[in-house]
Amino acid sequence: MSVSLRRFERIHIHSHIKGLGVKNGEPLPVSEGFVGQLEARKAAWIVVQLIKQGKMAGRGVLLAGPPGTGKTALAIAIAKELGEDTPFVALSGSEIYSSEIKKTEILMQSLRRAIGVRIHEFRRILEGVVKKLEVKLGPHPYNPYQQVPVEGTIVLATTSEERRLKVSGNFVAELLSKGVSEGDVVWIDLETGRVHRVGRAKGFEKEYDIYGEKLVETPKGSLEKEREFIHTVTLHDLDVMHSRSGSLLMLLFGGEQREISPEVRSRVDEAVKSWVDEGRAELLPGVLFIDDVHMLDIESFSFLSRAMENELAPIIILASNRGFTKIRGTDIKSPHGIPLDLLDRLLIIKTRPYRPNEIREILKIRAREENVELTEEALEYLTRIGSKESLRYASQLLTPAKILALNRGADKVDVRDVEEASRLFVSMVESSKYLRELEESFLK
Questions:
Q1: What is each CA distance from 9 to 149, 173, 175, 324, 415, in whole angstroms?
Q2: Which domains does the chain have, with CATH numbers?
Q3: For residues 136 and 150, is the Cβ–Cβ distance under 8 A?
Q4: 117: which DSSP letter?
Q5: Tens of pLDDT along the chain (444 residues)?
Q6: Which of 96, 130, 197, 369 supports an S-S bond with 16, CB 3.0-4.6 Å?
Q7: Is the dihedral of CA 219, 16, 237, 282 positive or negative?
């Protein structure tokens, strides 16, 4: 069974982050999805300026702070400040141990995923503003509990022409992966179906976060025209294609995960450099974000230190919520579990716990992002929960509370809904208290 939706929304824990929220070199108290963390955001803005000026070679960034203080959000915002097409690759420190290939190969592949190659071509395209986007969902072929696009309808218009197009589920997925929604101006390659989001059409502005939107004019004339089409692949994409006899089919449909030889990577690097010299392409260094960096071992840290010096290295951002702890694979204790020689090459940005008024603003933003209407009393109650328990826990209660409100026929979430949600889904503190009360009943 499938359902039709007028608007398909993808909610992510950091989907409200549009940038660092810095204007004229100074962070605004509430801007582009960010609240507070003024010092950390100003430091991150300076890092962005260093990157744009090409003065970050041989260095990385460490975001250090307690859990739930916006370290991942800062890394995402840095990538967004560098440009719309900037590759952003997120990796957990523990992921390098869960693969059949070497740890250093996982890190190398992640590094090359974080380097984009922007290729320029002249193509026949459809250019217009998306006036309507309807998505039909159906069950995932391998997971019946998950809904995926199976087909859709898009209405594309210019100032003088309008066309209704019926499109496949794959095309809809392409639109959604680029963050396209009603009111966006897009280019659609007629031959390949690739989509490029140009910006938001003037007259279709959202009520919020307009500061982070690129506003453009509604296209004029015919929908069909010839334009320079720009698309981005990563060095890793090219590595995979070359390692599989240059087969685009293998690149699209994949295969077993395996190591890529240095010779293949060398050939790819030479090809890309020639494209750049000919003006057909440009390199787009992105961001490799490694969370829980204390999980890396001494071998991995040594590899990262060397990788930072490579001329094709992306920006490496590490995050840690640990204090003094052992470097994995040694008996040496170090700040954040990072070797001192690597730590000395990092620009360290500290994040601090949020104040109650900041928690309140963040909850308002998250509620708006998740389409949850709160009464003032419910917002204040959630703020107290966020201050006492954690911001993450308070945020996680928003949608369950909305479901409870809808179940009793209300449009707005009030205190009783939040209270019931917090009883059904307990906090970490409550869970620990429960364990202490029934300690003898649990297996050890």
A1: 12, 12, 12, 41, 26
A2: 22-114+286-350 (3.40.50.300), 120-233 (2.40.50.360), 356-434 (1.10.8.60)
A3: yes
A4: E
A5: 333 443 434 445 566 677 787 888 888 888 777 778 888 889 888 888 888 887 777 788 899 888 888 888 888 888 888 877 788 888 888 887 776 778 888 888 888 888 888 887 777 888 888 888 888 888 877 777 777 788 888 888 888 888 888 888 888 888 887 778 888 888 887 777 778 788 888 777 665 444 456 788 888 888 888 777 677 788 888 888 877 654 444 444 444 456 778 888 888 888 888 888 888 888 878 888 888 888 888 888 888 888 887 777 788 889 888 889 888 888 888 898 888 888 888 889 898 888 888 888 888 888 887 888 888 998 998 998 888 888 888 888 888 889 898 888 888 889 898 888 888 888 887 888 877 877 777 666
A6: 369
A7: positive
Q: What pTM was computed for the model?
A: 0.66
List, in sequence order, every residue forming a beta bridge with 126; answer none if it has no partner.
188, 224
Cα atoms found within 13 Å of the Cα of residue 122, Cβ hemisphere only: 2
Tokens 């929604």: give the residue. 181
The number of CA neighbours under 13 Å toward the Cβ of 191 is: 8
